[in-house]
């Protein structure tokens, strides 16, 4: 996958901005970055779009800037000159898409039908925008289209918000979701940067869905692991089961290891909606991962990883739900 698309996929949520005052572009971008969303689609719905992109590109280099609502050659040229790394169109205009490709631009044209999607695939595109997503049948429609279009991925925009975005992001042919709910016009005009940051943080938290999975204890040998698992299950109730390496107890909340595993005392397992996205977002906050511990699913995406180091004598790992 193209590196820009890979970054968009890791970020997961792309704020779609219509900004009237280019002087507010930089503080807005910094608010988004602080909230964990270092990407933005700046739309050509306003006259300030070009200057806004230039300002963000120059002063907030960690922000991945794209241009939206691009409908003609002139806008496309101006967007690329302003530093846009991807171009989003509201619909599928073959002329605009072909022109963008000739310029080396990453094109994400808007599509709503299988016919439009096939034409995009014929032009060599691997990802397209699905717009307006909710009005066009939402994720249910995309899953219906997935059969004949297994090699196509989508970025749905239109009607997506914190409440329904996981319906989309849980589907592996969705690269990312575009949305405006964290950058409403009144919030930008009122310079409510802290509120924007808080909404972004909430969206990232929901997207990652990190929660405690289980605590692992190094029991020392199989007999002791079995004894402890049955004792705890007797006390707390719930099921217990044996694996090749351990006994799980109390409905999978505690694991007793036969042999020492990472962590002097044991490990703490956290579940997440996406190990890959969690690694990206936690990595931005300075968390380091043991690359040698990563295991992958059938599609080549990380599904399990240990953090580097120990925490109170315990190792910590992430695993997909």
Short description:
This protein is an alpha/beta fold and 321 residues long. The protein is 36% helix and 25% strand. The relative contact order is 0.11.
Describe the structure.
With 321 residues, the protein is an alpha/beta fold. The chain has 2 domains: 3-208, TIM Barrel (Alpha-Beta Barrel); 211-320, Roll (2,3-Dihydroxybiphenyl 1,2-Dioxygenase, domain 1), CATH 3.10.180.10. It has helices at residues 3-11, 25-34, 49-59, 73-81, 94-102, 114-122, 138-145, 165-169, 185-189, 193-208, 222-236, 275-284; strands at 13-17, 39-43, 64-68, 86-88, 107-108, 110-111, 127-130, 153-156, 177-179, 211-218, 241-242, 246-249, 254-257, 266-272, 289-296, 302-307, 314-320. The longest helix has 16 residues, at 193-208. The two termini are 24 Å apart.
What is the topology?
Blueprint: H1 3-11, E1 13-17, H2 25-34, E2 39-43, H3 49-59, E3 64-68, H4 73-81, E4 86-88, H5 94-102, E5 107-108, E6 110-111, H6 114-122, E7 127-130, H7 138-145, E8 153-156, H8 165-169, E9 177-179, H9 185-189, H10 193-208, E10 211-218, H11 222-236, E11 241-242, E12 246-249, E13 254-257, E14 266-272, H12 275-284, E15 289-296, E16 302-307, E17 314-320
Parallel strand pairs: 1-2, 1-9, 2-3, 3-4, 4-5, 6-7, 7-8, 10-13, 14-17
Antiparallel strand pairs: 10-14, 11-12, 12-13, 15-16, 16-17
Helix pairs in contact: 2-10
